[in-house]
Design goal:
Layout: H1 5-8, E1 21-23, E2 37-39, H2 44-58, E3 67-72, H3 80-86, E4 91-102, E5 106-116, E6 121-122, H4 124-136, H5 149-209, H6 213-241, E7 245-258
Parallel strand pairs: 1-2, 3-7
Antiparallel strand pairs: 4-5, 4-7, 5-6
Helix pairs in contact: 5-6
Length: 259
Amino acid sequence: LELNPSLKDNSILTDQKFIRIRFSDRSGPSRGKGYREVIDQFHPLVRFATNEMQDDMESGNFSYHPLIKCSVDRKLIQDNKIKEQIKDADWLFFYIERWSFSSSQKVKKLFYISANSDGIVLDDIDSENIINQACVEDSRMTSIPDIDNAILFSLLNNLKDISHESFSKYKENLAEEFQNKAEIQKSGLRRSASNRIENAEEKAHEKRLSNDERTALSIEGKIKKMRERLAERIDDINGRLQDLDSEFEDICAGIIILN
C-alpha cells in the first residue's frame, strides 16, 4: 500500500497506528460498530494480494479465483424472467470481469454472468441485477452448501468462455462505434473548414480584382494554413483509431444461495 499511491489513498492502514479492522466476505460499505476499516473483496489490500496471486497464476504456479458467498431471498426478486430462471434452483454461481478499452476514448465496463445450480445461464443484465440485489440485502449465510468443486470449476470455465466471447463481440461493436463517431467528427471538420476556405477564397479573388495583390496573397497564405491544419486534425483522428487497446481481468466469482 505504501508503494502504490492509488491504493494508499483508499485505505487508512498506512496511518502507522493501531487500527481496529474486520474482515468480511461480503461486499459493500457497511461497517460494524467500533471498526475503523472493513476489509472485503474490493479493499485495496485484497486487490494488491489478488494482483500478486494473478502474477503467480499467469506464471503457472497455481490457479486462483476469489470467491464471494452470500444469499438472497427469492421472494424479494421482482423480475419475472429471473424468477422463472431460478425457480427450481438452490444456488447461483456468478463470475465478474472488468473490461478496459482505449482508442479515441477510454471505456471501462464490468461484465456479469451467472448460472444456476441446474446449469441454466442467466444473461449479463439478469446476472447483474441479482448480484446487485444480493450485495444490497443484509443477509448472512448460516451454512455453506456442500457443492462439488468439480461442478463449480466446470461452471467457472463455461462462464469464462461466455464472457470472453462477449468481450470479443463488444470490442468489435465498440471499434465500429468509434469509427462511426470519427467519421462524423471528420465530416464536421471538413464541412467547417470548407466553409471558411470558400469564404477566404472569395475574399482573395475580390482583392485580386481590385489590384490588391498583397492582401490576396496574404489571404491565400491563410487558406494554405487552414488546409494544413485540417489535414493534421484528420491524421490525428485516424491515428487514434488505428489500434483499439483492450484487456480483461478477473474481478471475482461467487455463490449466491437462493432462500
